[in-house]
Protein backbone atom coordinates (compact mmCIF):
# COMPACT_ATOMS: atom_id res chain seq x y z
CA UNK A 1 0.00 0.00 0.00
CA UNK A 2 1.49 3.29 -1.01
CA UNK A 3 -0.07 4.94 1.99
CA UNK A 4 -2.75 6.95 0.25
CA UNK A 5 -6.00 7.37 2.07
CA UNK A 6 -8.08 6.41 -0.98
CA UNK A 7 -6.38 3.03 -1.22
CA UNK A 8 -6.90 2.36 2.45
CA UNK A 9 -10.52 3.37 2.24
CA UNK A 10 -11.03 0.99 -0.68
CA UNK A 11 -9.54 -1.82 1.39
CA UNK A 12 -11.86 -0.90 4.24
CA UNK A 13 -14.95 -0.93 2.00
CA UNK A 14 -14.09 -4.30 0.49
CA UNK A 15 -13.08 -6.03 3.72
CA UNK A 16 -15.00 -4.43 6.56
CA UNK A 17 -17.87 -6.95 6.61
CA UNK A 18 -15.53 -9.90 6.18
CA UNK A 19 -13.34 -8.83 9.06
CA UNK A 20 -16.39 -8.34 11.22
CA UNK A 21 -17.79 -11.75 10.26
CA UNK A 22 -14.50 -13.42 11.04
CA UNK A 23 -14.22 -11.65 14.40
CA UNK A 24 -17.80 -12.46 15.32
CA UNK A 25 -17.42 -16.13 14.41
CA UNK A 26 -14.28 -16.36 16.47
CA UNK A 27 -15.36 -14.27 19.44
CA UNK A 28 -19.14 -14.88 19.34
CA UNK A 29 -19.68 -11.39 20.72
CA UNK A 30 -21.00 -8.56 18.58
CA UNK A 31 -19.51 -5.76 20.68
CA UNK A 32 -16.16 -7.48 20.83
CA UNK A 33 -16.30 -8.17 17.09
CA UNK A 34 -17.01 -4.51 16.43
CA UNK A 35 -14.12 -3.43 18.65
CA UNK A 36 -11.78 -5.89 17.01
CA UNK A 37 -12.82 -4.76 13.54
CA UNK A 38 -12.23 -1.12 14.42
CA UNK A 39 -8.93 -1.99 16.06
CA UNK A 40 -7.82 -4.04 13.08
CA UNK A 41 -8.40 -1.18 10.65
CA UNK A 42 -6.78 1.31 12.96
CA UNK A 43 -3.68 -0.87 13.28
CA UNK A 44 -3.67 -1.51 9.55
CA UNK A 45 -3.77 2.21 8.87
CA UNK A 46 -0.92 2.90 11.26
CA UNK A 47 1.17 0.10 9.75
CA UNK A 48 0.13 0.70 6.16
CA UNK A 49 3.70 1.39 5.11
CA UNK A 50 4.81 -2.03 6.34
CA UNK A 51 2.70 -3.78 3.74
CA UNK A 52 4.89 -5.49 1.17
CA UNK A 53 3.01 -6.46 -2.03
CA UNK A 54 5.67 -9.05 -2.82
CA UNK A 55 4.67 -11.02 0.28
CA UNK A 56 1.00 -11.49 -0.55
CA UNK A 57 -2.36 -9.88 -1.03
CA UNK A 58 -3.56 -6.88 0.90
CA UNK A 59 -6.46 -8.87 2.34
CA UNK A 60 -4.11 -11.51 3.72
CA UNK A 61 -2.04 -8.79 5.37
CA UNK A 62 -5.19 -7.18 6.80
CA UNK A 63 -6.52 -10.45 8.15
CA UNK A 64 -3.16 -11.13 9.79
CA UNK A 65 -3.61 -7.89 11.71
CA UNK A 66 -7.27 -8.68 12.42
CA UNK A 67 -6.34 -12.12 13.68
CA UNK A 68 -3.81 -10.68 16.14
CA UNK A 69 -6.40 -8.19 17.35
CA UNK A 70 -9.01 -10.93 17.70
CA UNK A 71 -6.66 -13.25 19.56
CA UNK A 72 -5.59 -10.42 21.86
CA UNK A 73 -9.26 -9.84 22.59
CA UNK A 74 -9.78 -13.54 23.13
CA UNK A 75 -6.92 -13.64 25.63
CA UNK A 76 -8.24 -10.59 27.41
CA UNK A 77 -11.69 -12.12 27.64
CA UNK A 78 -10.25 -15.36 28.96
CA UNK A 79 -8.36 -13.45 31.62
CA UNK A 80 -11.49 -11.60 32.60
CA UNK A 81 -13.53 -14.82 32.36
CA UNK A 82 -16.27 -12.91 30.58
CA UNK A 83 -19.12 -14.99 29.35
CA UNK A 84 -19.67 -14.82 25.64
CA UNK A 85 -23.10 -14.19 24.33
CA UNK A 86 -24.78 -16.72 22.17
CA UNK A 87 -25.16 -15.35 18.64
CA UNK A 88 -28.34 -17.38 18.34
CA UNK A 89 -30.36 -14.21 17.96
CA UNK A 90 -28.66 -13.43 14.71
CA UNK A 91 -29.65 -16.79 13.33
CA UNK A 92 -33.20 -16.44 14.52
CA UNK A 93 -33.62 -13.17 12.65
CA UNK A 94 -32.53 -14.77 9.41
CA UNK A 95 -34.67 -17.85 9.95
CA UNK A 96 -37.90 -16.00 9.41
CA UNK A 97 -36.98 -15.08 5.82
CA UNK A 98 -35.90 -18.54 4.60
CA UNK A 99 -37.61 -21.88 4.11
CA UNK A 100 -37.96 -24.32 6.94
CA UNK A 101 -35.59 -26.90 5.45
CA UNK A 102 -32.87 -24.40 4.91
CA UNK A 103 -33.39 -23.01 8.37
CA UNK A 104 -32.99 -26.45 9.78
CA UNK A 105 -29.81 -27.05 7.83
CA UNK A 106 -28.41 -23.70 8.84
CA UNK A 107 -29.20 -24.34 12.45
CA UNK A 108 -27.51 -27.71 12.23
CA UNK A 109 -24.43 -26.15 10.66
CA UNK A 110 -24.44 -23.40 13.23
CA UNK A 111 -24.67 -25.90 16.06
CA UNK A 112 -21.92 -27.99 14.49
CA UNK A 113 -19.77 -24.89 14.18
CA UNK A 114 -20.23 -24.22 17.85
CA UNK A 115 -18.96 -27.68 18.65
CA UNK A 116 -15.64 -26.97 16.92
CA UNK A 117 -12.56 -25.77 18.76
CA UNK A 118 -11.55 -22.15 18.48
CA UNK A 119 -8.75 -23.01 16.06
CA UNK A 120 -11.11 -24.97 13.79
CA UNK A 121 -13.78 -22.31 13.99
CA UNK A 122 -11.19 -19.73 12.99
CA UNK A 123 -10.28 -21.76 9.90
CA UNK A 124 -13.92 -21.96 8.85
CA UNK A 125 -14.40 -18.25 9.47
CA UNK A 126 -11.34 -17.25 7.46
CA UNK A 127 -12.29 -19.53 4.57
CA UNK A 128 -16.06 -19.15 4.34
CA UNK A 129 -16.84 -15.88 6.11
CA UNK A 130 -13.77 -13.85 5.14
CA UNK A 131 -13.36 -15.57 1.78
CA UNK A 132 -9.61 -16.02 1.92
CA UNK A 133 -7.83 -18.27 -0.54
CA UNK A 134 -5.80 -21.16 0.82
CA UNK A 135 -2.56 -19.29 0.24
CA UNK A 136 -3.82 -16.23 2.13
CA UNK A 137 -5.09 -18.54 4.82
CA UNK A 138 -1.62 -20.03 5.13
CA UNK A 139 -0.04 -16.58 5.41
CA UNK A 140 -2.48 -15.43 8.06
CA UNK A 141 -1.92 -18.57 10.13
CA UNK A 142 1.82 -18.60 9.51
CA UNK A 143 1.89 -22.12 8.09
CA UNK A 144 2.57 -23.62 4.69
CA UNK A 145 -0.21 -23.69 2.12
CA UNK A 146 -0.43 -27.49 2.11
CA UNK A 147 -0.54 -27.48 5.91
CA UNK A 148 -3.30 -24.89 5.83
CA UNK A 149 -5.24 -27.04 3.35
CA UNK A 150 -4.86 -30.09 5.54
CA UNK A 151 -6.00 -28.19 8.63
CA UNK A 152 -8.99 -26.80 6.76
CA UNK A 153 -9.93 -30.23 5.45
CA UNK A 154 -9.83 -31.68 8.95
CA UNK A 155 -12.01 -28.90 10.28
CA UNK A 156 -14.55 -29.44 7.47
CA UNK A 157 -14.57 -33.18 8.07
CA UNK A 158 -15.27 -32.57 11.72
CA UNK A 159 -17.98 -30.11 10.82
CA UNK A 160 -19.56 -32.55 8.36
CA UNK A 161 -19.69 -35.22 11.03
CA UNK A 162 -21.19 -32.83 13.51
CA UNK A 163 -23.79 -31.65 10.97
CA UNK A 164 -24.75 -35.21 10.07
CA UNK A 165 -25.08 -36.12 13.75
CA UNK A 166 -27.20 -33.03 14.32
CA UNK A 167 -29.46 -33.74 11.37
CA UNK B 1 -7.43 -42.35 -5.24
CA UNK B 2 -5.00 -41.81 -2.38
CA UNK B 3 -5.96 -39.96 0.74
CA UNK B 4 -3.99 -36.86 -0.15
CA UNK B 5 -5.55 -36.79 -3.58
CA UNK B 6 -8.98 -37.08 -2.01
CA UNK B 7 -8.18 -34.17 0.30
CA UNK B 8 -7.02 -32.06 -2.62
CA UNK B 9 -10.12 -32.96 -4.61
CA UNK B 10 -12.39 -31.92 -1.75
CA UNK B 11 -10.54 -28.66 -1.23
CA UNK B 12 -10.81 -27.99 -4.95
CA UNK B 13 -14.52 -28.73 -4.81
CA UNK B 14 -14.94 -26.24 -1.99
CA UNK B 15 -13.05 -23.57 -3.93
CA UNK B 16 -15.11 -24.30 -7.03
CA UNK B 17 -18.31 -23.97 -5.01
CA UNK B 18 -17.18 -20.65 -3.57
CA UNK B 19 -16.29 -19.47 -7.07
CA UNK B 20 -19.73 -20.53 -8.31
CA UNK B 21 -18.31 -23.17 -10.60
CA UNK B 22 -19.93 -26.60 -11.05
CA UNK B 23 -18.62 -29.46 -8.87
CA UNK B 24 -18.54 -33.21 -9.22
CA UNK B 25 -21.78 -34.81 -7.92
CA UNK B 26 -19.71 -36.90 -5.51
CA UNK B 27 -18.91 -33.62 -3.70
CA UNK B 28 -22.45 -32.34 -3.67
CA UNK B 29 -22.79 -32.65 0.09
CA UNK B 30 -19.55 -30.82 0.65
CA UNK B 31 -20.62 -28.09 -1.76
CA UNK B 32 -23.89 -27.72 0.07
CA UNK B 33 -22.04 -27.43 3.39
CA UNK B 34 -19.79 -24.77 1.91
CA UNK B 35 -22.76 -22.79 0.67
CA UNK B 36 -24.46 -23.10 4.03
CA UNK B 37 -21.33 -21.85 5.76
CA UNK B 38 -21.10 -18.88 3.44
CA UNK B 39 -24.78 -18.18 3.87
CA UNK B 40 -24.38 -18.44 7.61
CA UNK B 41 -21.84 -15.70 7.64
CA UNK B 42 -22.80 -13.25 10.35
CA UNK B 43 -23.99 -10.03 8.79
CA UNK B 44 -22.91 -6.71 10.17
CA UNK B 45 -25.78 -4.78 11.74
CA UNK B 46 -26.32 -1.39 10.18
CA UNK B 47 -25.56 0.55 13.34
CA UNK B 48 -22.27 -1.30 13.72
CA UNK B 49 -21.38 -0.37 10.16
CA UNK B 50 -22.18 3.28 10.85
CA UNK B 51 -20.04 3.32 13.96
CA UNK B 52 -17.15 1.69 12.16
CA UNK B 53 -17.44 4.22 9.34
CA UNK B 54 -17.31 6.99 11.90
CA UNK B 55 -14.21 5.48 13.44
CA UNK B 56 -12.66 5.27 10.01
CA UNK B 57 -13.48 8.90 9.36
CA UNK B 58 -11.62 9.77 12.55
CA UNK B 59 -8.56 8.12 11.09
CA UNK B 60 -8.68 10.23 7.94
CA UNK B 61 -5.69 12.53 7.96
CA UNK B 62 -6.24 16.27 7.79
CA UNK B 63 -5.03 18.04 4.66
CA UNK B 64 -1.35 18.76 4.98
CA UNK B 65 -0.37 22.22 5.94
CA UNK B 66 2.65 23.77 4.39
CA UNK B 67 5.45 23.21 6.81
CA UNK B 68 7.40 26.19 7.89
CA UNK B 69 11.06 26.31 7.01
CA UNK B 70 12.27 25.36 10.45
CA UNK B 71 10.17 22.19 10.35
CA UNK B 72 11.60 21.01 7.09
CA UNK B 73 14.19 18.24 7.10
CA UNK B 74 16.55 20.45 5.12
CA UNK B 75 16.64 22.90 7.97
CA UNK B 76 17.38 20.09 10.40
CA UNK B 77 20.20 18.84 8.22
CA UNK B 78 21.62 22.34 7.85
CA UNK B 79 21.42 22.84 11.60
CA UNK B 80 23.13 19.51 12.26
CA UNK B 81 25.81 20.33 9.69
CA UNK B 82 26.40 23.72 11.26
CA UNK B 83 26.73 22.21 14.69
CA UNK B 84 29.14 19.58 13.40
CA UNK B 85 31.22 22.26 11.70
CA UNK B 86 31.24 24.28 14.91
CA UNK B 87 32.44 21.31 16.91
CA UNK B 88 35.11 20.64 14.32
CA UNK B 89 36.31 24.24 14.50
CA UNK B 90 36.41 24.08 18.30
CA UNK B 91 38.37 20.85 18.18
CA UNK B 92 40.73 22.31 15.62
CA UNK B 93 41.35 25.50 17.50
CA UNK B 94 41.62 23.96 20.95
CA UNK B 95 42.79 20.40 20.62
CA UNK B 96 44.51 20.35 17.28
CA UNK B 97 48.21 20.63 16.86
CA UNK B 98 47.82 23.84 14.99
CA UNK B 99 50.40 25.56 17.04
CA UNK B 100 48.62 26.58 20.18
CA UNK B 101 49.49 23.69 22.45
CA UNK B 102 51.15 24.83 25.59
CA UNK B 103 53.92 22.37 25.91
CA UNK B 104 55.68 19.52 24.26
CA UNK B 105 53.84 16.23 24.02
CA UNK B 106 55.97 13.45 25.38
CA UNK B 107 54.91 9.99 24.45
CA UNK B 108 56.81 6.75 24.52
CA UNK B 109 57.72 5.43 21.15
CA UNK B 110 59.13 2.00 20.52
CA UNK B 111 62.74 2.40 19.66
CA UNK B 112 62.74 0.51 16.42
CA UNK B 113 59.64 2.17 15.14
CA UNK B 114 60.59 5.75 15.60
CA UNK B 115 62.37 6.90 12.47
CA UNK B 116 61.53 5.77 9.01
CA UNK B 117 65.17 5.55 8.11
CA UNK B 118 66.72 2.35 6.93
CA UNK B 119 68.86 0.59 9.48
CA UNK B 120 72.37 1.91 9.47
CA UNK B 121 71.58 4.68 7.08
CA UNK B 122 71.80 8.36 7.64
CA UNK B 123 68.57 10.20 7.46
CA UNK B 124 68.72 12.46 4.54
CA UNK B 125 68.37 16.14 4.90
CA UNK B 126 68.06 18.06 1.70
CA UNK B 127 71.35 19.72 0.88
CA UNK B 128 71.46 23.20 2.32
CA UNK B 129 67.74 23.66 2.16
CA UNK B 130 65.66 22.87 5.17
CA UNK B 131 68.15 23.31 7.94
CA UNK B 132 66.70 25.20 10.76
CA UNK B 133 68.44 28.35 11.76
CA UNK B 134 68.11 28.89 15.41
CA UNK B 135 68.22 31.90 17.59
CA UNK B 136 71.40 32.45 19.51
CA UNK B 137 69.95 31.32 22.77
CA UNK B 138 70.77 28.52 25.08
CA UNK B 139 68.21 26.44 26.87
CA UNK B 140 68.83 28.30 30.11
CA UNK B 141 68.23 31.59 28.41
CA UNK B 142 71.82 32.90 28.54
CA UNK B 143 73.00 34.63 25.47
CA UNK B 144 76.14 33.62 23.75
CA UNK B 145 78.95 36.15 23.81
CA UNK B 146 77.50 39.33 22.61
CA UNK B 147 80.25 40.23 20.21
CA UNK B 148 79.78 37.11 18.10
CA UNK B 149 76.95 36.06 15.90
CA UNK B 150 76.01 32.43 16.33
CA UNK B 151 74.23 29.94 14.20
CA UNK B 152 72.95 26.54 15.05
CA UNK B 153 71.50 23.98 12.74
CA UNK B 154 69.33 21.30 14.16
CA UNK B 155 67.54 18.45 12.50
CA UNK B 156 65.83 15.28 13.49
CA UNK B 157 65.00 12.18 11.56
CA UNK B 158 61.39 13.23 11.63
CA UNK B 159 62.26 16.70 10.58
CA UNK B 160 61.29 18.33 13.84
CA UNK B 161 63.57 20.63 15.79
CA UNK B 162 64.98 19.12 18.94
CA UNK B 163 66.36 19.90 22.37
CA UNK B 164 64.36 22.91 23.26
CA UNK B 165 65.42 25.02 20.33
CA UNK B 166 62.85 27.17 18.72
CA UNK B 167 62.25 26.68 15.07
CA UNK B 168 62.16 29.78 12.94
CA UNK B 169 61.92 28.12 9.58
CA UNK B 170 59.68 25.51 8.03
CA UNK B 171 60.02 21.94 9.14
CA UNK B 172 62.51 19.76 7.39
CA UNK B 173 61.37 17.00 5.14
CA UNK B 174 63.85 14.18 4.99
CA UNK B 175 64.79 13.25 1.49
CA UNK B 176 66.59 10.30 0.07
CA UNK B 177 69.98 11.89 -0.31
CA UNK B 178 72.96 10.34 1.35
CA UNK B 179 75.04 11.42 4.29
CA UNK B 180 77.28 13.24 1.88
CA UNK B 181 74.70 15.96 1.79
CA UNK B 182 75.52 17.02 5.33
CA UNK B 183 76.04 20.76 5.16
CA UNK B 184 79.51 22.12 5.21
CA UNK B 185 80.48 24.30 8.15
CA UNK B 186 80.17 27.98 7.65
CA UNK B 187 83.63 29.03 6.59
CA UNK B 188 84.19 32.52 5.36
CA UNK B 189 87.91 32.41 4.95
CA UNK B 190 89.27 34.76 7.58
CA UNK B 191 86.26 34.26 9.84
CA UNK B 192 86.97 32.33 13.01
CA UNK B 193 84.28 29.86 14.00
CA UNK B 194 83.75 27.31 16.73
CA UNK B 195 81.78 24.31 15.59
CA UNK B 196 80.06 21.68 17.65
CA UNK B 197 77.61 18.91 16.90
CA UNK B 198 75.36 16.43 18.59
CA UNK B 199 74.34 13.13 17.15
CA UNK B 200 71.62 10.92 18.57
CA UNK B 201 71.57 7.34 17.36
CA UNK B 202 69.31 4.43 18.01
CA UNK B 203 70.31 0.86 18.11
CA UNK B 204 69.00 -2.51 19.17
CA UNK B 205 69.76 -3.23 22.81
CA UNK B 206 72.03 -6.15 22.02
CA UNK B 207 74.06 -4.04 19.58
CA UNK B 208 75.12 -1.25 21.92
CA UNK B 209 78.61 -2.72 22.30
CA UNK B 210 79.07 -3.10 18.56
CA UNK B 211 77.99 0.47 17.99
CA UNK B 212 80.34 1.73 20.72
CA UNK B 213 83.24 -0.10 19.07
CA UNK B 214 82.37 1.44 15.74
CA UNK B 215 82.31 4.89 17.32
CA UNK B 216 85.78 4.39 18.78
CA UNK B 217 87.04 3.20 15.40
CA UNK B 218 85.63 6.20 13.57
CA UNK B 219 87.08 8.64 16.12
CA UNK B 220 90.51 7.06 15.81
CA UNK B 221 90.37 7.20 12.03
CA UNK B 222 89.52 10.89 12.11
CA UNK B 223 92.30 11.72 14.59
CA UNK B 224 89.76 12.66 17.20
CA UNK B 225 89.86 12.31 20.95
CA UNK B 226 87.37 10.56 23.18
CA UNK B 227 87.16 12.95 26.11
CA UNK B 228 84.68 10.79 27.97
CA UNK B 229 82.45 7.86 27.26
CA UNK B 230 79.84 5.81 29.01
CA UNK B 231 78.46 2.55 27.64
CA UNK B 232 75.68 0.66 29.43
CA UNK B 233 74.59 -2.54 27.75
CA UNK B 234 71.49 -4.19 29.16
CA UNK B 235 70.54 -7.83 28.92
CA UNK B 236 67.25 -7.05 27.30
CA UNK B 237 66.27 -4.31 24.96
CA UNK B 238 67.59 -1.50 27.13
CA UNK B 239 70.98 0.07 26.63
CA UNK B 240 72.66 3.43 26.53
CA UNK B 241 75.96 4.95 25.43
CA UNK B 242 77.25 8.48 25.55
CA UNK B 243 80.43 9.84 24.02
CA UNK B 244 81.99 13.24 24.39
CA UNK B 245 84.42 13.67 21.53
CA UNK B 246 86.87 16.27 20.34
CA UNK B 247 87.34 16.12 16.60
CA UNK B 248 89.60 18.20 14.38
CA UNK B 249 87.28 20.74 12.84
CA UNK B 250 88.40 19.82 9.37
CA UNK B 251 87.30 16.25 10.00
CA UNK B 252 84.03 17.02 11.77
CA UNK B 253 81.75 16.52 8.80
CA UNK B 254 83.59 13.37 7.71
CA UNK B 255 83.22 12.07 11.26
CA UNK B 256 79.52 12.90 11.32
CA UNK B 257 79.09 11.14 8.02
CA UNK B 258 80.91 8.06 9.22
CA UNK B 259 78.94 7.98 12.47
CA UNK B 260 75.71 8.34 10.54
CA UNK B 261 76.50 5.23 8.57
CA UNK B 262 77.24 2.82 11.39
CA UNK B 263 76.09 -0.71 10.71
CA UNK B 264 74.02 -1.28 13.80
CA UNK B 265 72.56 2.14 14.43
CA UNK B 266 70.57 4.73 12.69
CA UNK B 267 70.28 8.43 13.18
CA UNK B 268 67.45 9.87 15.19
CA UNK B 269 68.64 13.43 15.23
CA UNK B 270 71.67 15.55 14.61
CA UNK B 271 72.46 19.05 15.62
CA UNK B 272 75.14 21.22 14.12
CA UNK B 273 76.10 24.44 15.86
CA UNK B 274 78.41 27.14 14.66
CA UNK B 275 79.58 30.10 16.71
CA UNK B 276 81.35 32.98 15.04
CA UNK B 277 84.19 34.18 17.31
CA UNK B 278 86.01 36.38 14.80
CA UNK B 279 85.58 39.55 16.85
CA UNK B 280 86.62 37.87 20.05
CA UNK B 281 89.62 36.36 18.30
CA UNK B 282 90.67 39.72 16.89
CA UNK B 283 90.16 41.35 20.26
CA UNK B 284 92.32 38.78 22.00
CA UNK B 285 94.97 39.10 19.29
CA UNK B 286 94.92 42.86 19.63
CA UNK B 287 95.31 42.66 23.39
CA UNK B 288 98.27 40.34 22.97
CA UNK B 289 99.86 42.61 20.39
CA UNK B 290 99.32 45.62 22.63
CA UNK B 291 100.86 43.81 25.58
CA UNK B 292 103.88 42.78 23.48
CA UNK B 293 104.29 46.31 22.20
CA UNK B 294 104.07 47.62 25.75
CA UNK B 295 106.76 45.19 26.87
CA UNK B 296 109.09 46.38 24.09
CA UNK B 297 108.51 49.96 25.12
CA UNK B 298 109.06 49.15 28.79
CA UNK B 299 112.28 47.33 28.02
CA UNK B 300 113.53 50.42 26.18
CA UNK B 301 112.55 52.61 29.11
CA UNK B 302 114.32 50.22 31.46
CA UNK B 303 117.52 50.55 29.44
CA UNK B 304 117.29 54.33 29.69
CA UNK B 305 116.34 54.44 33.38
CA UNK B 306 118.57 56.73 35.56
CA UNK B 307 117.38 56.09 39.07
CA UNK B 308 116.65 53.01 41.08
CA UNK B 309 113.08 54.20 41.58
CA UNK B 310 112.55 54.40 37.83
CA UNK B 311 114.04 50.92 37.42
CA UNK B 312 111.72 49.49 40.09
CA UNK B 313 108.65 51.11 38.62
CA UNK B 314 109.41 49.89 35.11
CA UNK B 315 110.13 46.38 36.35
CA UNK B 316 106.78 46.32 38.15
CA UNK B 317 105.03 47.38 34.93
CA UNK B 318 106.98 44.70 33.05
CA UNK B 319 105.79 42.09 35.52
CA UNK B 320 102.18 43.18 35.11
CA UNK B 321 102.55 43.29 31.36
CA UNK B 322 104.09 39.84 31.36
CA UNK B 323 101.10 38.39 33.15
CA UNK B 324 98.81 40.20 30.71
CA UNK B 325 100.76 38.70 27.82
CA UNK B 326 100.49 35.25 29.39
CA UNK B 327 96.76 35.67 29.88
CA UNK B 328 96.22 36.94 26.36
CA UNK B 329 98.28 34.11 24.91
CA UNK B 330 96.21 31.61 26.85
CA UNK B 331 93.01 33.18 25.59
CA UNK B 332 94.21 33.17 22.00
CA UNK B 333 95.54 29.64 22.35
CA UNK B 334 92.30 28.43 23.90
CA UNK B 335 90.29 30.06 21.18
CA UNK B 336 92.54 28.56 18.52
CA UNK B 337 92.10 25.17 20.12
CA UNK B 338 88.34 25.58 20.16
CA UNK B 339 88.41 26.60 16.52
CA UNK B 340 90.70 23.77 15.53
CA UNK B 341 88.86 21.08 17.49
CA UNK B 342 85.10 20.71 17.55
CA UNK B 343 83.12 19.13 20.33
CA UNK B 344 80.95 16.27 19.22
CA UNK B 345 78.48 14.53 21.51
CA UNK B 346 77.19 11.16 20.43
CA UNK B 347 74.33 9.54 22.25
CA UNK B 348 73.14 6.03 21.49
CA UNK B 349 69.88 4.78 22.87
CA UNK B 350 68.26 1.39 22.82
CA UNK B 351 64.83 0.51 24.11
CA UNK B 352 61.88 2.76 24.58
CA UNK B 353 62.85 6.38 24.82
CA UNK B 354 60.63 9.37 25.10
CA UNK B 355 60.27 11.30 21.91
CA UNK B 356 59.73 14.94 22.56
CA UNK B 357 57.47 16.65 20.15
CA UNK B 358 57.93 20.34 20.07
CA UNK B 359 54.90 22.52 19.83
CA UNK B 360 54.73 23.77 16.32
CA UNK B 361 54.78 27.40 15.54
CA UNK B 362 51.62 29.40 15.39
CA UNK B 363 49.92 30.24 12.16
CA UNK B 364 47.96 28.53 9.48
CA UNK B 365 49.22 26.34 6.69
CA UNK B 366 47.68 23.75 4.43
CA UNK B 367 49.91 21.09 5.94
CA UNK B 368 48.74 21.90 9.47
CA UNK B 369 45.15 22.06 8.34
CA UNK B 370 45.41 18.64 6.75
CA UNK B 371 47.16 17.32 9.81
CA UNK B 372 44.42 18.67 12.07
CA UNK B 373 41.73 17.35 9.76
CA UNK B 374 43.36 13.95 9.91
CA UNK B 375 43.41 14.06 13.69
CA UNK B 376 39.77 15.07 13.84
CA UNK B 377 38.90 12.27 11.44
CA UNK B 378 40.83 9.73 13.49
CA UNK B 379 39.15 11.02 16.64
CA UNK B 380 35.73 10.75 15.08
CA UNK B 381 36.45 7.26 13.78
CA UNK B 382 37.67 6.26 17.21
CA UNK B 383 34.49 7.51 18.81
CA UNK B 384 32.43 5.71 16.18
CA UNK B 385 34.38 2.52 16.76
CA UNK B 386 33.80 2.70 20.51
CA UNK B 387 30.15 3.49 19.93
CA UNK B 388 29.83 0.51 17.60
CA UNK B 389 31.60 -1.72 20.09
CA UNK B 390 28.94 -0.78 22.62
CA UNK B 391 25.97 -0.55 20.29
CA UNK B 392 26.40 -3.79 18.40
CA UNK B 393 26.21 -6.13 21.43
CA UNK B 394 23.47 -3.93 22.85
CA UNK B 395 21.53 -4.13 19.59
CA UNK B 396 21.93 -7.91 19.51
CA UNK B 397 20.59 -8.14 23.08
CA UNK B 398 17.67 -5.84 22.28
CA UNK B 399 16.91 -7.80 19.10
CA UNK B 400 17.01 -11.08 21.01
CA UNK B 401 14.76 -9.63 23.70
CA UNK B 402 12.35 -8.27 21.13
CA UNK B 403 12.32 -11.60 19.30
CA UNK B 404 11.66 -13.48 22.54
CA UNK B 405 8.84 -11.17 23.57
CA UNK B 406 7.31 -11.47 20.10
CA UNK B 407 7.48 -15.26 20.22
CA UNK B 408 5.93 -15.33 23.67
CA UNK B 409 3.14 -13.06 22.55
CA UNK B 410 2.47 -15.23 19.50
CA UNK B 411 2.35 -18.34 21.67
CA UNK B 412 -0.01 -16.61 24.04
CA UNK B 413 -2.30 -15.76 21.16
CA UNK B 414 -2.25 -19.30 19.85
CA UNK B 415 -3.00 -20.64 23.33
CA UNK B 416 -6.04 -18.42 23.43
CA UNK B 417 -7.44 -20.39 20.49
CA UNK B 418 -6.86 -23.70 22.22
CA UNK B 419 -8.49 -22.69 25.45
Description:
The complex is a heterodimer of chains A (167) and B (419). Chain A has helices spanning 5-27, 30-46, 58-80, 88-95, 100-115, 118-129, 134-141, 145-166. By secondary structure, chain A is mainly alpha-helical. In chain A, helix 2 packs across helix 3. The radius of gyration of chain A is 17 Å and the shape is globular. With 419 residues, chain B is an alpha+beta fold. In chain B, strand 7 (225-233) and strand 8 (239-248) form a beta hairpin. In chain B, helix 1 (3-19) crosses helix 2 (28-39) and helix 7 (278-304) runs antiparallel to helix 8. Chain B is rod-shaped and about 170 Å long. Chain B starts with a helix and ends with a helix. The A-B interface holds A 5, 9, 12, 16-17, 20-21, 24-25, 30, 33-34, 37-38, 41-42, 45, 68, 71-72, 74-75, 78, 87, 90-91, 94, 105-106, 109-110, 113, 117-119, 122, 124, 127-129, 131, 133-134, 149-150, 152-153, 156, 159-160, 163 and B 7-8, 10-11, 14-15, 18, 29-30, 32-34, 36-45, 48-49, 51-52, 55-56, 59-61, 412-419.
Task: Please give the structural blueprint.
The complex is a heterodimer of chains A (167) and B (419).
Chain A: H1 5-27, H2 30-46, H3 58-80, H4 88-95, H5 100-115, H6 118-129, H7 134-141, H8 145-166
Chain B: H1 3-19, H2 28-39, H3 46-59, H4 73-95, E1 105-109, E2 124-125, E3 132-133, E4 150-156, E5 174-175, E6 193-203, H5 208-221, E7 225-233, E8 239-248, H6 252-260, E9 265-276, H7 278-304, H8 308-340, E10 341-350, E11 353-357, H9 366-418
Parallel strand pairs in B: 6-10
Antiparallel strand pairs in B: 1-11, 2-5, 3-4, 4-9, 6-9, 7-8, 8-10
Q: List the helices and strands of chain B in order.
A: HHHHEEEEEEHEEHEHHEEH
Give the ordered list of helices and strands of chain A. Answer: HHHHHHHH
Distance linking N and C termini of chain B: 36 Å
Which segments of chain A are poorly predicted (pLDDT under 50) over 5 or more consecutive residues?
A: 82-92
Amino acid sequence: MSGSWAQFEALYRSSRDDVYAYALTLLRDQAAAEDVTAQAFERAYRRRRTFDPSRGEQRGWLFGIARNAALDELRRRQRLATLVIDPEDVQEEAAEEDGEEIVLRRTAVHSALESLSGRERELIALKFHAGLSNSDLAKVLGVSESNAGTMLHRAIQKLRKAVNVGV
Amino acid sequence: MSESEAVLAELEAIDATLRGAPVDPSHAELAELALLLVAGRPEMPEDVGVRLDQKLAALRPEPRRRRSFIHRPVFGLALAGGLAAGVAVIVLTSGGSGGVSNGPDVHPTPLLAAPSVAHGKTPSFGANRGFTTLAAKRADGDSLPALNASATTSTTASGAPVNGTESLSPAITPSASSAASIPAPINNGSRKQIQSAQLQLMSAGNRIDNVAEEVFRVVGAQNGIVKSSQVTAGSGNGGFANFSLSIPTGNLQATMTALSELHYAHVVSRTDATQDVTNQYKSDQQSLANALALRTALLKQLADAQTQAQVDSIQQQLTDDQSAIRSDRQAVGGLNNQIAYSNLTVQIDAGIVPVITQPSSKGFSLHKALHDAGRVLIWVLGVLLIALAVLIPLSVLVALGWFGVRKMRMRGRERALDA
